[in-house]
Automatic annotation (TrEMBL):
Gene3D superfamilies: Aldehyde Dehydrogenase, Chain A, domain 1 (3.40.605.10), Aldehyde Dehydrogenase, Chain A, domain 2 (3.40.309.10)
Organism: Marinomonas rhizomae
GO molecular function per UniProt: oxidoreductase activity, acting on the aldehyde or oxo group of donors, NAD or NADP as acceptor
Residue intervals of the Aldehyde dehydrogenase domain: 17-458
PANTHER family to which the protein is assigned, alphabetical: ALDEHYDE DEHYDROGENASE-RELATED, SUCCINATE-SEMIALDEHYDE DEHYDROGENASE, MITOCHONDRIAL
Protein name: NADP-dependent aldehyde dehydrogenase
Amino acid sequence: MSKEHGKNFINGSRSSDGNTVINSYSAFSGEPLNTTFFQATQAEVEAACASANEAFFEFCNFSSSKRAKFLNCIADELDALGDDFVEIVHQETALPYPRINGEKSRTSNQLRLFAELLSRGDFYGARIDTGDPSRQPAPKVDIRQYQIGIGPVAVFGASNFPLAFSTAGGDTAAALAAGCPVVFKAHSGHMKTAEIVAEAIINAAQKTDMPSGVFNMIFGSGVGKALVQNPHIKAVGFTGSLSGGNAICKMASERAEPIPVFAEMSSINPVILNEGAIKNRGKLIAKELADSVVLGTGQFCTNPGLVIAIKSESFSSFIDDLSTEISNKASSVMLNKGTLSSYVSGIETLEKYHGIEVLSRGQSHEGQATPYLFKASSKLLLDSDELLQEEVFGPATVLIEAQDRNELIKCLSAMRGQLTATLISEEDEMAASSDILSLLQHKAGRVLINGYPTGVEVCDSMVHGGPYPATSDSRGTSVGTLAIERFLRPVCFQNYPDHLLPDAIKNSNPLRINRLINGSFTKDSINL
């Protein structure tokens, strides 16, 4: 075992100044694994942030092609991790091997996608309005704009995606693509996984001649506040609970220099069923929906947590079919004991709550999460009851039967912001559902028709975000290339000599990127 094992990553080196040692645990047994880590001290957190800040002024000025090379190299390092790494992830998270391998590929692929974005250059958002000294009554000045990195970014690892939303995940990839060094807070649920991925990032940084502080990682509980409040940090990326996200937002807003927090938090991802779809393919929908509810032990932020339709005989039959499907689903191991404890607590609360009944439960096994199907009174939604507005993180969903279409619309209107909203419908019903679809656009970041929200494609057009409390800022996304926008800011240059301008807005357009020049998009150079 390496002498550096378990130490914090600071300025290209490993550090263990503190005396507090923490364990990584088996997701299956809850017993400590043969791995220990050093909790970062206040001084180490400050050193990591200072290192990132020092690196920023060099890193942000690198060409986009140089940063793209760095991202591609990280992807190559991740791809080279073998079965021994997959086994470590499996032990720490209980995720099945195919899921881990798939997520590993997704993580490297999204790094390469950001590298492609850097090569395209559209992230610069280049805008140019050329001057006109002859304009009357006052000359028109030459004004040009492009986007630069906002500064060092603090990123908090997610529990449910130990690769794609963690150390080298979407937030880290987007920040690095933007030219922002990262200080990463490793998630306590998979610290060994985080360490190996961090080593891959550091290897890539050294191979591509990045500044030593371009990536830093700290371990431990209680270090998040010092990280968020450090004056060198200019933005935060977070994926986790509503309470955790709200706490970070509060810390960030109370700083002497408030900073933006891009937190993904809580979503129940409603699925609306139209009558024709239920009547024509109710049994198939019940099977597909049940599969979506239990996929990954329900540990997806896009898990369908609420199903709603108008009362009818067809819907009653569908409820029976879905109840049967859920009852046939097996229990499974969750990410860790803490996640299981939260799930069990959420289920017990629903079971005891007035206006909610258990329709079906899956096969149970001690120490595992049992799938559940509940039915709730529509009054709970109409009264904006908090219980139905927050997700139960795990393999459970709630049915609501609206009395008529008017009540259905009212229920949807009462919902808070979501990551996703889904309409299951026949083609000939969709025109009559235009008002529902319009409403859902204002409730969710991604609206689906005849699909299921679990499964998020990593591509240019994906939006993985939504109004509060799905995220803290609905203007961003944590998946897809638009995610880079969270860590960029526009800078305007007025009456600059051409030789002093950044390449993205020089007359000759040396980067050959698409630019908005005097109101028209073009890759042409400017001849003055």
